[in-house]
Structures are given as C-alpha cells and as structure tokens.
Amino acid sequence: MGRRSEHTPDVLRALVVEEARKIVAVDGLSGLSAREIARRIGYSPGTLYNIFANLDDLILHIEAGVLDQLDQRLANLPATRSPTANLLHLAQEYLAFTSECPRLWNLLFEHHLPAHTPVPEWYQVKLDALLQRVERALQPLMPFATPELTQRSARVLWAGVHGITSLATAEKLSSVTSASAKDLVTDLVENYLAGLATRRPEPVWAPPQSAAL
C-alpha cells in the first residue's frame, strides 16, 4: 500500500468501503467496526469520520455497492418473449446472487438506521430501481391493472421470493421443507402468476339511464 499522503479523499473513501465490505463478507455485521477498518488500511479511526458521517453512513455505502452489483447482474439477463420466463430469470438470478454473498446481502436487512432517521434519497432510488425491474417484467401479464396494482403485485411477489432466499441464506430452509430453494422460487413465481391470470378487472358501475320519454 502506498503512503497515506498519496490517497486522495475519493481513493480513501473507496479503500474504506472495500475493506469494510471484505470484513462483512467474512464476519457479517457483528465483525464491523471503525477501529478494525482503520487498522487494516493503516489509518486512525478518526480519519473514517472525516469521510463518512458515522458508521451507519459507511454501512449504507457498502449496501449501495451490493445493490449496484445485483442491479447490474439483473440488467445483463437475456430477455425472452415470455414474461413468465423473464420473471423466473429475475427470481432465480436473485436467488443465485444471495447464495453467493449471503452475509453481504443479509447486511441490507440486519442493519437498521437509528429511530426516526430517514433513508437517504440516493439509497431509496437504488432500492426502487431494483423493484421497478420486477414491475416492468410483470406489466405484460397485467395489461388492465393500474400502475398502483402492478407496483403492489410486484412487491408482493418479490417479498415471497425474498422470504425463500432469506431462509436459504440462513440455512433454515430444511426446517420448513426438503425442496430446494430453486424449486420453491419456481413454484412461487409460477403459481403467483397463474393466480394473476385468473383475475379480471371489475366492471365499472354506472347508474341505469332513464328511459326516453
């Protein structure tokens, strides 16, 4: 590693995030501390707080990198002519991603900001972008739905997929079923979409017109 004076603020920021990411990937959130990060990069703990507001701010930047990595991976999936196949691709790739880096992915759900601290707008944009991928894939299967219904349906579906992946990454799935996470995700997506296919928009009620005199 070069002398500390050679590190610009941007380089130092990237160095801190990358080292913190390595710690979380091995030890999870419980292993992360400003002191340990500083020790690894050869700086004092106080230096970290010249770059990040606090440890929560640093953790959000680690999470942001994970979200960017997943978004890029989903963006590179080949599209098909089948909306069902597209959604299955998204769900299975999501499952694969979480199984490859479980501690980093679980960081997004283990870490909580202090009470009454709002999620930064830049971070919310990244979360919304991922869910919008699901909405766009689902939209062709719900041509008569309002945008609000499509949005809610996408989030319901992905909440179910996330539940399976969470059990799988926590190695708790075997206490629920002997089926593989991949098979469960496939069943969930296919059955959910089959249920959506049976839904029809309710007719809009209009008062009867009076007979012409």
Q: Unreliable segments (pLDDT under 50, ≥5 consecutive)? A: none
- Percent helix among the residues? 55-70%
Rounded to the nearest angstrom, the radius of gyration is: 23 Å
- Give the overall silhouette: elongated
Largest sheet: number of strands, sense, barrel closure: none
How many individual helices? Answer: 9
**β-strand amount:** under 5%
User: Overall pLDDT, averaged?
Assistant: 89
Order of helices and strands: HHHHHHHHH
The structure class reads: mainly alpha
Record field, number of beta strands = 0
Alpha carbon gap, first and last residue: 93 Å
Task: Give the secondary structure arrangement, pairings included.
Blueprint: H1 9-27, H2 34-41, H3 45-48, H4 55-75, H5 83-100, H6 102-110, H7 121-138, H8 147-169, H9 181-197
Describe the structure.
The protein contains nine helices and no strands. It is mostly helical and 213 residues long. The relative contact order is 0.10. The model has no long low-confidence stretch (mean pLDDT 89).
